Automatic annotation (TrEMBL), chain B:
Residues 223-233 have a biased composition (Basic and acidic residues). It is found in: Cell membrane; Membrane, Coated pit. This is AP-2 complex subunit mu. It comes from Zalophus californianus. It is a peripheral membrane protein. The lineage of its organism: Eukaryota, Metazoa, Chordata, Craniata, Vertebrata. A 1,2-diacyl-sn-glycero-3-phospho-(1D-myo-inositol-3,4,5-trisphosphate) binds at K347, K349, K351, K360, K362.
Amino acid sequence: MTDSKYFTTTKKGEIFELKAELNSDKKEKKKEAVKKVIASMTVGKDVSALFPDVVNCMQTDNLELKKLVYLYLMNYAKSQPDMAIMAVNTFVKDCEDPNPLIRALAVRTMGCIRVDKITEYLCEPLRKCLKDEDPYVRKTAAVCVAKLHDINAQLVEDQGFLDTLKDLISDSNPMVVANAVAALSEIAESHPSSNLLDLNPQSINKLLTALNECTEWGQIFILDCLANYTPKDDREAQSICERVTPRLSHANSAVVLSAVKVLMKFMEMLSKDLDYYGTLLKKLAPPLVTLLSAEPELQYVALRNINLIVQKRPEILKHEMKVFFVKYNDPIYVKLEKLDIMIRLASQANIAQVLAELKEYATEVDVDFVRKAVRAIGRCAIKVEQSAERCVSTLLDLIQTKVNYVVQEAIVVIKDIFRKYPNKYESVIATLCENLDSLDEPEARAAMIWIVGEYAERIDNADELLESFLEGFHDESTQVQLQLLTAIVKLFLKKPTETQELVQQVLSLATQDSDNPDLRDRGYIYWRLLSTDPVAAKEVVLAEKPLISEETDLIEPTLLDELICYIGTLASVYHKPPSAFVEGGRGVVHKSLPPRTASSESTESPETAPAGAPSSEQPDVIPTQGDLLGDLLNLDLGPPVSGPPLATSSVQMGAVDLLGGGLDSLMGDEPEGIGGPNFVAPPAAAVPANLGASMGSGLSDLFDLTSGVGTLSGSYVAPKAVWLPAMKAKGLEISGTFTRQVGSISMDLQLTNKALQVMTDFAIQFNRNSFGLAPAAPLQVHAPLSPNQTVEISLPLNTVGSVMKMEPLNNLQVAVKNNIDVFYFSTLYPLHILFVEDGKMDRQMFLATWKDIPNENEAQFQIRDCPLNAEAVSSRLQSSNIFTVAKRNVEGQDMLYQSLKLTNGIWVLAELRIQPGNPSFTLSLKCRAPEVSQHVYQAYETILKN
Amino acid sequence: MIGGLFIYNHKGEVLISRVYRDDIGRNAVDAFRVNVIHARQQVRSPVTNIARTSFFHVKRSNIWLAAVTKQNVNAAMVFEFLYKMCDVMAAYFGKISEENIKNNFVLIYELLDEILDFGYPQNSETGALKTFITQQGIKSQTKEEQSQITSQVTGQIGWRREGIKYRRNELFLDVLESVNLLMSPQGQVLSAHVSGRVVMKSYLSGMPECKFGMNDKIVIEKQGKGTADETSKRRPSAPARSGKQSIAIDDCTFHQCVRLSKFDSERSISFIPPDGEFELMRYRTTKDIILPFRVIPLVREVGRTKLEVKVVIKSNFKPSLLAQKIEVRIPTPLNTSGVQVICMKGKAKYKASENAIVWKIKRMAGMKESQISAEIELLPTNDKKKWARPPISMNFEVPFAPSGLKVRYLKVFEPKLNYSDHDVIKWVRYIGRSGIYETRC
């Protein structure tokens, strides 16, 4: 007997018959009837009318029948809430059944019935099941909490289920732990603010232990949860990584990918000099390659993720090019992804192989794939200069095949090659022109027209060619029309005598006969330019074009960092953040990579910091290309953005990090310094909770002017230092310093051209940095810089850029571009340029805050050889926005209590002890973000000694 | 997490529909049918997003399995789960076909209820599932049996039940390898790798602790060093000799029974095996692969209407060994009108429906050579597009492991029961098969 017969009953009056059968006395008949009902339900028929009859069958000791009835209930309870109550009793009774399988079944099903009245009754059985002696029941109950939370979050909180769930993380059974982790993670996602998944080294340790023992699915839940944790320092990160790496050998690809996610994320915290860092990099490659031998669907997921990993850390797979070669039988989605990765991995070392492969692909059947392969050849040419020539000849071969779409695609990429390597491959133009007639796609037509216009002087019959396009001007797409207009104007400027008629024709077509505003506007501009000043027109239209960039389709770095946190998930498959495809509040929490932190020791004991040498860091450290490239890519797109880029994702990270530290009361710890009757702390010290959290929203600083204390002199300015020596920047020497005057920060630069050629097209960009420093305006170098010329520029800065914690804190990585190349350097800025004008705290506040900041955040420094007295010190510091809040004389020593505020809202409190006649001062600093203390001390040193 | 799971037949009719999450509406079933199954073009991605709902699908023969979700789920996990679902169904009722699914729909619902709870995959080992999802009802179980079931389903060793007894303790190890090759027409290896599997079939009593050893280069070198230190005076050449016989494994993955942390630290493979057949490990090697066959193609276009093809195959292994089931597939253009073939060995046939000449040889010893030549007549066409010349592919089976992998030992310890490693009867077999073994022409 088979069950398929239930699918075939389609006669009328069926419901009626079923009703009769359901109420039959014979058990077998009943069961048959329920099966029929389920079959009808599956194919989409509405059998909700049978609700009471089906529920009546629930009281049975036949488990198979019971399960079927439950299945029916889950589907229809919502539409018949009143009837569903009838089932409650059975559920409650089943939850007490001696058989654990039945207890679990009851609690599992009950959670799926989304009827308010039922959920009320669910609480008691659920509470019992969460503490059941049988692990099978407990693991089912753990998931049930998540179900209940989905229906009624408040109820779950009120009933204290969340605490019970947290306790289950320490359960002895690994599967219970895994399910509890999964449930808690899901609940935590809908409450981003709550600290539900209170991850700390102890709980992490428990999870890592359970990881070794639970099922493959449980391992995925745990790894995904681990990925949300931020270790406190690099050592913890390393020890977690060490315990996660064995998962890379698991047969389940999802376990492997989730482990990769944890490793990629925590790696961010490890120093690159560490031996372990190198080991880890090596360990990551083989499992990623192995994923490519999985089933095609998984290969696709893996490839989409590898695409991200290759962009983030190209070194991992740089030697594995061959495994991405396309196989003839790969499904098309795998082929396209492999091709993408091949281009990313292409380098001088492997370009020959890659090209041979691409050429092979260009003869395949699938049109999309062939097109992408042809385009890839062009991208190789642009990426690897040495291969350009070979790429061009390959493209020419392909054009000879005369396959329509291959030819068109080839022409589009050849245009890009022309732009990357001007005056090198123009000899092929003749071949291109032969194929003019076969072009029917706008992009290819536009590309061809661009080529003809750009090289009009070398093409004898350029006017004829362009004229032929002009005939059907109105049928062309806008892209082609615009290109045609520009090309003919170019042609006219190059060969004015023969083409006057043509240019007039196109101008009138564009301005008078077109409805397209873009086209019309461009037409008018050309027209006026040509009629008023042909020389200027020439300068505008035939201006030298900037070179095009190498990689155009890289994912934007902040998005990439976010996606790395989502390895293995849908977000990494779509290459979109979850907010782009998930509805509602779920999963919209931004994730970001942890900041790189030093080992805890260095921050713990600031006393041991060398007091003499302010900075041992060389300012001309050139960061690795890979780090900066992503951030600085915008450079090629014209003038840098003057507005602040919105960086919501990274803001919170920096802020949280700087806030660290508990809030121990310091009462009694500092009696002799600031004690005394007139310094009574206000009750319930009202320290703004978000003291450090306004990081990045430094907008308020712009208004500091009004509240300024009246010191217009501006803070101390260091003499200019050489930041970028000429030999490292093809003749461009940059020296500079930072200033702060009446509330605005600027970077004073001196650019010297020590090369033999003229420099033009300057632009500047900063990498993300600790305080969000960013250029407030483009770098304005008005005239080209001729050899041996020097120009001084003041570049206004603001602090609303993207924030990323740097090491050292005041490190600033800068890229400067000119017509020759892009250069990178990094420099350290003195922290006092960030001291804002309203940094004076009132006394009460000062005292409360001082007490509120824990003792371990206090740092003490010695300032030696400073001949000034207390008055002079105070006034000198005030001009750099360090304000004296109070002054006392204790046992012949002058005590200055000072405050200052950074642009991101962090307050630093200081106590400066000066003994008359002794040139050494003692400086104690207290701040919620102890990392800044060292730099504030350096600022004191520089201000007082100069 | 997974919001729902649907199974469709090739026409797009729903066979199974199970919804786990409230955010998945009833229209989701139809959305997938309309947008994917009934879509005109070929499927461009196994993941489809329709109106903010994501569908993951896999196909088994002409059955579609689709998982649906509205959240940012772990995509790799969803696919792994779908494959697992297929495995479980196959273990219960054999081939996944429309008929079998309809015949077992009650069972499938029961399984879906068990292995996916609120969209979270649960224990899906068939060994464990079969103890309590039986379609017989579980009325008759004693209390002990019940707790044994639950502890097995949730326990650390979820893949094996206790109290297994055999009169004869026996185990079979199969080293199954597939050699993949892509060769240029000039005989240059473009890419080659072996993906291997070690499949174990065990009939062992109790809870045996097993340890598996092979000629893994890292292990051998470690040991080589150890012995070299002790015996360096007597046998200075020992490490060099063992180095030759060892192989470099690029990467390997293991069945979940293997203790991964132990492998990571000591590189030893120890485990308690499931009862019956399972895949112990998968591995991949790329170095020093023995390519069992070399294909030398020669294609000449004689005018626009004729092609001359000559293909030589050479076997490259010990003459005492025999390769079997050899098949060479030579693709022909779509406009082929007739083919004449001459081959020295085996049988060759032009199969118009497959656009290929298929040349079959039953057996071939090592270090031999054979040749086929064909003349292909072409119909003149005005199709501008050139023939893509798909690669020549080959199938074969050889009785050795092309990666060079050797099983060194498989030790069995069962401290509680009364049998030792020596009492276990062990069988080892090596089979090398062609994976994608292609030569471009």
